[in-house]
Amino acid sequence: MLDAPTRGRLEFYFSTERSQSRVLPCDPASVAVARRLVVALLDHWELSELADRAALVVSELATNSVVHARTCGASIRVAVTLIENDRVEIAVTDLDRRRPVLRQARPSDEGGRGLDLVAAVSRNWGCERRHWGKRVWAELAPLEGA
Fold first, then answer.
1. pTM higher than 0.85, yes or no?
2. Average pLDDT in the chain
3. How confident is the model over 88-135, as pLDDT tens digits?
4. Contact at 8 Å (CB) between 12 and 41?
5. Mean per-residue pLDDT, 5-29
6. Which of 13, 42, 69, 106 has the most CB atoms in a 10 Å sphere around its CB?
7. Do 128 and 137 contact (CB within 8 A), yes or no?
8. Closest Cα to residue 62, out of 73, 47, 74, 78?
9. What are the tens digits of pLDDT across the range 51-73?
10. Is 26 helix (H, G, I), strand (E, B) or coil?
11. In this structure, how many other beta carbons lie within 10 angstroms of the beta carbon of residue 134?
12. Rounded to whole angstroms, what are the CA distances from 75 to 9, 44, 145?
């Protein structure tokens, strides 16, 4: 096991596998843990240039699971997969089979923009139903011309 630099974050230990996941409680506090996990893993993989967008993506996906999945008392799974040397997939799985809804938020709405943000900063994103729930994922890569 290798340890990632923590720089004030929780300490996580990662194997040499190209995919890492953690099961977290279906609780609002898990969103911050998921964010720190993803950023630490990207540091470990030397992909820090993706960290800000990845933190936004996992925050939105985990928040959607915690707020909308209505499976409190259960758990969510956060997974990060190194697809290629500079591309990652971030996925959040929960026990609710309902697909997330991409909606048009009005300027006065306080919420409803999360999936728009995910779509804006990701190369691609989607939702896969499972017989026990769903998996929502987003793929990130370096920005072209950056």
1. no
2. 83
3. 999 999 998 888 876 676 666 566 667 888 999 999 999 999 988 999
4. yes
5. 72
6. 42
7. yes
8. 78
9. 999 999 999 999 999 887 766 56
10. coil
11. 19
12. 22, 25, 39
Calpha distance 92→98 (Å, rounded): 14
What is the C-alpha to C-alpha distance for residues 102 and 113, in angstroms, rounded to an integer?
8
In three-state secondary structure terms, 5 is coil
For residue 98, give Cα distances in angstroms to 40, 50, 60, 69, 72.
30, 29, 16, 8, 15
Structure tokens at 68: 């909308």
Contact 140, 87 (CB under 8 A): yes
Look at the block and give the residue holding tokens 């953690």: 22
One-letter amino acid at 123 equals R
Residue with tokens 């240039």: 49
